[in-house]
Amino acid sequence: MPGTRRDILGVDRAQTSVLRIRSMANLFDVDEMASGYAQSRPPIHVHIIDRVRSAVEGLPVARALDVGCGAGISTKALQKIANVCLGLEPSQPMLPFAGRVAPGALFVAGSAEYMPLPAKSVDLIGAAGSLNYVDLDRFFPEAARVLRPKGLLLVYDFSPGRSFRDNDSLDQWFRQFVERYPFPANDAHELSPPILARASSLFRVVSSDVFEIGVVLQPEFYLNYMMTETNVAAAVRRGIRVQEIKQWSAETLGPLWNNQAREVLFQGYWACMSLERAEELNR
Ligand SMILES: C[S@@+](CC[C@H](N)C(=O)[O-])C[C@H]1O[C@@H](n2cnc3c(N)ncnc32)[C@H](O)[C@@H]1O
Prior knowledge:
Rossmann fold; binds S-adenosylmethionine
């Protein structure tokens, strides 16, 4: 009985339990990553959303979905441009944190390729750093199904903060960090506004920008933040202890930070896309 499977949000809970099994290969699907994402990620999202809000017409919207919401930091930022926010995330350990990080939002297990939501049920889909891990050929038609006519898809991302403004010592450190603990090959695909512009005929980029945002961080925060990067998760999967990685990082970062807060620069992009060809999918 299809009518009994959906809850009051229209979320198909039967489909979400199937999706839990599919997320096993996800590097984010571990408890340490989830608590790191809840507590140790830099607060860049809110700055990006402020920029989007000033550049894009029609915001705030009534209802938004955050695809690949992680521990909810991106959902919390999305609450600035939507009255009701729903976070969707395949990694089970992330979800309990998300409810605490973004109170007032609703969260559900699911993936970008199969969203357990009715057709035309949201005005905006946000994706912060998540589409790189998604099968885009399946995601775009699914996003077009779930969005209302003229709905918006907001995609953004930023690279790891690895530069001080005044010297390149942190860049040098980051190079050593990645040489020692390489990022996993082929796990994520590159995205940018030009790549997104060519990615799907269903969506058109209406506004986009690249940015550099500086945020002052404490040395301890930066150390814990680095432990949330996927090169650390990949090293742990290869059998290296996280404490060993943290100790090496603490010893080598110490002289650079000198126990003082420092401004770290983050580079990234955002692209706001509008749904162009919903009719044929939503028939
Ligand atoms: C870099 S994290 C970003 C998390 C969150 N949006 C943020 O900004 O903090 C990428 C997220 O994408 C999620 N993810 C991976 N594969 C996915 C998929 N197929 N569908 C939806 N999300 C996915 C991961 O579980 C992870 O939480």
